[in-house]
Specification:
A: alpha+beta; 35% helix; B: 5-stranded antiparallel sheet
Chain lengths: 488, 408
């Protein structure tokens, strides 16, 4: 078995004995695949990759790692956008992609128990025949894994009404860094004790590795109504969003795109969207009469706010096409610019129009362009900063703009990440969003789970080393290039 | 060093029968931090008190030198109606908060009992909830940010004031239900929901337990979206209340469809004062009495669970049983008659709910019952990690020691 230089061969042999030699990757040429996740810059080669097949194997792997003092980096499908699964030098990367079984389905009690490597969309596919679905819908849902969703507390367009992964995980079996196996939560609500699941979900692989996850599944809503509204600018579109929310409407999703993002989506998909300053796409779902009422009220509000045109899809195919245009916008920016970087920040919803103007001015001052695609209902922005790496200085300026956008989010009372996670990429900004005491308290939680500090080091928490790092360019992930998933 | 404003404790400062020596009543979060730092210097064991509605929850503290009241921490720190968020200090009562929000057509979608006394901080610490949990989830689904004061007096924040936020570990959710054993919940930020245009409650029954289960299931299978589904035992039967909220046309249509689902069962539609009275009565039924229990269970097991809980209620004077069948949570409340009988019924109910992952906690019990029944039941399998968490956040074990699960 070939092993990269520097990785202790005896540890490699012990790990191979646990998971089987066929499930160990040590050849430097093969390790390249694992150098990064969906955030494709800042690559690091892991020491060794192991692909365990069971909780027991994960436990043994972690015990060996701990005895050897080697850091562990867990990885699901590797679609994360913040470098949460980025290796650290010499680490053991534990890939959960072989653990892909559905273990138990109990629809009478509304849950399903799966292994961490199961794809998000496959959960829905498994229960769809019975009229159920799994609500969190990150845009990489056809390939991202439930274990990764748990680590990142993944959201999606529809989390406005339905919440995030943390609102849908009922229980998990977790292996801690000392190899112990812990069952947290339970299929029944409110198991006595601390809400350990709350700590685990969104802990970015730093507290443990989930080997089984029990998820709540919901009955598919009876009715979904969608409409698309165009506006002269983001000001009117933002006012429409505020008006809809102020009217007491809770849409299932309400998405917004600006002129450049619309142009990109049109170029990529050939949709007949007009050349306008902004566009809204809204889903309402639930019982029939309620949804019909809410949808027509929202359309009235959009008109009153200055909508140029309202389009209501005539059937499900046309509805999906509208959503396809929205989803395509992200990768479609590649049609407009050789390079771009993606941000993920959150601002209070009422600040959308003001913050967009600020971002526009900032980008213009740097001599760059920005396309905005975002979840307007919860103020989750995804600015895409366009640049050309061949022009000297542009990449640095884009990175600086990206960092400044995060600072705008913090200053507005928002957050540096709504769904992509902090990972390796934004750890430096945590010290700007949180105070020292806040971070030190979170570190205490970390120590309770991982006293040795070997689980996914270098993520989430700022270290002096990371303070100089800047956001990097966006490079499409292989699954995206292959057309398997869109991301934003 | 004793905090400057400490007073001698009185009977009202007693927690689960244990009376402290001192009581402090900080007026700001900064005061609270200074008080906790001072109490830490003397290594005093402390507990936190909000409105006092859930003080009976948990085991009696092994040590208790001082209580910290949050009643003067009662300000709204920030309310942004257009962002549907509010940040409030822990000592504000739920009713006062709702009154603050109502003029803007909003509410905190959390209908924990005794809203006029129960404080925001106490509700979060006790993970209190009401019937609307069926639709809106529990405290952890509504909390988006929190400021805590640690045992050492250090103020720490988690989360923020935007709903969608994955930066950092989730301290706010971790503190939900922690009963003051990890830190003082000093300020909480919530996401809010609009007040509905219309509300109506469909009251069905009396029904047998399997009928409650099947009508609940039929309602959900029809993909209606009730905000509450709650049943109350009446002699050997139950009445089922299904609450609908939303815009008028939606509520009307869902009501018509519910009537069709109920078939020949006796039913009536309650609105306005009649509706409010029903829910007030049922809320009181679930919390009045010297003995209170909360059982969680797999919803599909409803009939057998109801039988065990009915037996528990029967051991109490004026025993009441209120159940949320879609959630798999039930409450039993009444006055103690025979500690031995009640303790045996508690154990029998635990044997019924635990195989499917459920639990039964005595949320209030007089000393006589505490002497013969364990209020928490068996420690969870993850108790070791809970102990480690406690040691990290309260290394001197001074925050209500012994009150929480497994002797934490």
């Amino acid at each position: 078995m070939p092993v990269a230089a520097g990785f202790p061969p005896d540890v490699a042999a012990r790990l191979a004995a646990v998971v089987g030699a066929a499930h160990v990757v040590g050849d430097p040429a093969d390790l390249v695949v694992y150098e990064c996740d969906g955030l494709t810059h800042g690559r690091t080669t892991p020491g060794l990759v192991v692909l365990p097949g069971s909780a027991d194997e994960v436990s043994q792997v972690l015990r060996i790692a701990r005895e050897s003092g080697i850091p562990i980096v867990p990885r699901g499908s590797g679609t994360g956008l913040s470098g949460g699964a980025r290796p650290v030098p010499g680490c053991i990367l534990v890939a959960l992609s072989r653990m892909r079984r559905v273990l138990e389905i109990d629809l009478a009690n509304g849950w399903i128990r799966v292994e961490p490597g199961v794809f998000n969309l496959d959960v829905t596919r498994t229960v769809a025949g019975d009229g159920f679905y799994y609500a969190p819908d990150p845009s990489s849902q056809s390939v991202c894994s439930i274990g990764g969703n748990l680590a990142e507390n993944s959201g999606g367009a529809h989390c406005l009404k339905y919440g995030f992964t943390v609102n849908h995980v009922l229980a998990a079996r977790v292996v801690l860094s000392d190899g112990s196996v812990v069952d947290v939560g339970g299929p029944a609500l409110d198991p006595p004790g601390y809400d350990l699941l709350a700590a685990l979900v969104g802990s970015e692989g730093m507290l443990g590795i989930a080997t089984e996850v029990t998820l709540r599944v919901l009955r598919k809503p009876e009715t979904t109504r969608t409409f698309l509204a165009t506006f002269p600018s983001c000001d009117e579109a933002g006012a429409a969003v505020s008006g809809i929310i102020a009217a007491g409407i809770l849409p299932a999703a309400i998405e917004m795109m600006d002129r450049l993002a619309i142009e990109a989506a049109r170029a990529a998909t050939g949709l007949d969207w007009p050349d306008v300053g902004a566009l809204l796409l809204m889903d309402a779902d639930g019982p029939r009469a309620e949804v019909e009422h809410v949808s027509s009220r929202a359309i009235e509000i959009a008109r009153a706010a200055g909508a140029l045109e309202i389009r209501v899809p005539k059937d499900d195919a046309e509805r999906l096409l509208m959503w396809k245009g929205r989803k395509a916008a992200f990768a479609a920016v590649g049609h407009l610019s050789p390079n771009y970087l993606v941000e993920d920040g959150v601002i209070p919803r009422s600040e959308i129009a003001r913050v967009l103007r600020e971002i526009g001015a900032l980008t213009q001052a740097a001599g760059l362009r920005v396309a905005n695609v975002f979840h307007a209902g919860d103020g989750n922005l995804h600015p895409l900063v366009l640049y050309d790496a061949r022009i000297p200085g542009q990449e640095e300026r884009a990175a600086a703009v990206g960092g400044e956008i995060l600072r705008i989010c913090i200053r507005s009372g928002g957050s540096i990440t709504g769904e992509h996670g902090v990972g390796a990429e934004k750890a430096a900004y945590m010290a700007e969003q949180f105070g020292e005491a806040d971070l030190e308290t979170m570190q205490r939680v970390r120590r309770a789970f991982d006293e040795a500090g070997i689980m996914n080091p270098g993520k989430v928490f700022p270290t002096p080393r990371l303070c100089g790092e800047k956001p990097g360019p966006y490079v499409p992930h292989p699954v995206e290039v292959a057309g398997l998933a869109e991301r934003w | 060093m004793t905090p400057a404003l400490a007073r001698a404790a009185t009977d009202v400062d007693t927690i689960c029968g244990v009376r402290p020596r001192l009581a402090v009543e900080p007026r700001t979060v900064a005061d609270a931090a200074a008080d906790l730092e001072a109490l830490a210097k003397d290594r005093l064991a402390i507990a936190f008190v909000g409105g006092g509605t859930d003080l009976e929850l948990g085991a009696a503290p092994a040590r208790l030198d001082a209580v910290v009241h949050t009643r003067h921490l009662s300000r709204v720190r920030e309310y942004a109606p257009s962002d549907q968020i509010v940040a409030v200090e822990a000592g504000m009562t739920l009713a006062a908060l709702q009154q603050h929000l109502a003029p803007h057509g909003q509410r905190l979608a959390l209908d924990a009992p005794a809203a006029a006394q129960a404080t925001v901080g106490g509700i979060v610490a006790a993970n209190a909830f009401g019937p609307r949990r069926t639709r809106y989830g529990s405290v952890r689904d509504l909390v988006i940010g929190m400021t805590i004061v640690r045992a050492d007096g250090v103020v720490a924040r988690g989360g923020g004031k935007v709903v969608k936020n994955v930066a950092g570990f989730d301290l706010p959710r971790l503190l939900c239900g922690s009963l003051g054993t990890l830190g003082l919940i000093a300020e909480v930020t919530f996401r809010l929901h609009p007040l509905p245009e219309r509300s109506a409650t469909f009251l069905v029954g009396p029904l047998a337990a399997p009928e409650v289960a099947s009508l609940t299931r039929a309602t959900l299978d029809a993909r209606l979206e009730p905000v509450a589904v709650t049943a109350r035992a009446e002699r050997d039967r139950l009445r089922l209340a299904i609450r609908l909220e939303g815009f008028a046309p939606g509520v009307r249509d869902q009501g018509d469809r519910l009537a069709a689902l109920a078939g020949s069962a006796a039913c009536e539609l309650l609105e306005a004062q009649d509706e409010a009275r029903l829910w007030d009565d049922w809320e009181r039924a679930a919390i009045e009495g010297t003995v209170r229990a909360k059982a969680t269970f797999a919803p599909a097991e409803l009939p057998s669970v109801l039988e065990a809980l009915r037996a528990l209620a029967a051991t109490l004077r004026d025993g009441e049983l209120v159940v949320h069948p879609a959630l798999g949570i039930a409450r039993v409340a009444g006055d103690l008659q025979s500690a031995g009988d009640t303790a045996r019924a508690v154990e029998a109910a635990r044997r019924t709910v635990s195989p499917a992952g459920g639990a039964l906690v005595l949320t209030a019990a007089p000393g006589g019952l505490r002497a013969v029944a364990d209020v928490w039941g068996a420690a969870p399998r993850s108790i070791e990690i809970m102990r480690r968490l406690k040691r990290e956040l309260d290394p001197e074990n001074r925050l209500a020691p012994g009150r929480f699960v497994g002797g934490i």
